[in-house]
């Protein structure tokens, strides 16, 4: 089972874990237990934190893919979600979890199918293996 932990070094983070909001200050730590629906965002500039995922599974690749898409301006302003549905599906494929509120079978059918198509069309090679600067 996957769990995530954060330790804030500087700045301020706000978390929502299973519907409960928490503000974290420097020196504080917080853990999202397995299967907890969670999100977090910075509430202060120059926020720095340690983030641990156990077991890590494919999260490193997910964050690298997201970074590469963001660096190439292929994400939305604000939420930084991929604009391209195929890139979004590939990001979903690497997340090692599920989105809240959408039935798992539907996520597999829609995002799983689109992720396979994205891989066949070279998205994985373009956005993850080589990155945006080498295309």
What series of H and E elements makes up the topology?
EEEEEEHHHH
- Alpha-carbon distance between the termini? 36 Å
Main β sheet profile: 3 strands, antiparallel
Low-confidence runs: none
Radius of gyration: 16 Å
Number of helices: 4
Question: What structural category characterises the helix and strand content?
Answer: alpha+beta
In percent, how helical is the residue content?
A: 25-40%
* Main sheet: strand order: 4-1-6
| Shape designation | globular
The domain tally reads 2
Q: How much strand?
A: 25-35%
Mean pLDDT: 89
Tell me the number of strands. 6
Provide a quick synopsis of the model.
This protein has 135 residues and is of the alpha+beta class. The protein has helices at 59-71, 85-94, 104-120, 123-129, and strands at 3-10, 13-17, 20-24, 29-32, 38-42, 48-54. It has a 3-stranded antiparallel β-sheet with strand order 4-1-6, with no helix packed on it.
Describe what this molecule looks like in 3D:
This protein folds into two domains: 3-54; 59-134, no CATH class. The protein is 35% helix and 25% strand. With 135 residues, it is α+β, with helices and mostly antiparallel strands. It has four helices and six strands; from the N terminus they run ββββββαααα. The longest helix is centred in the last third of the chain and has 17 residues, at 104-120. The mean pLDDT is 89. Strand 2 (13-17) and strand 3 (20-24) form a beta hairpin. The strands form two sheets. A three-stranded antiparallel sheet has the order 4-1-6, with no helix packed on it. Strands 3-2-5 form a three-stranded antiparallel sheet, with no helix packed on it. It is globular, with a radius of gyration of 16 Å.
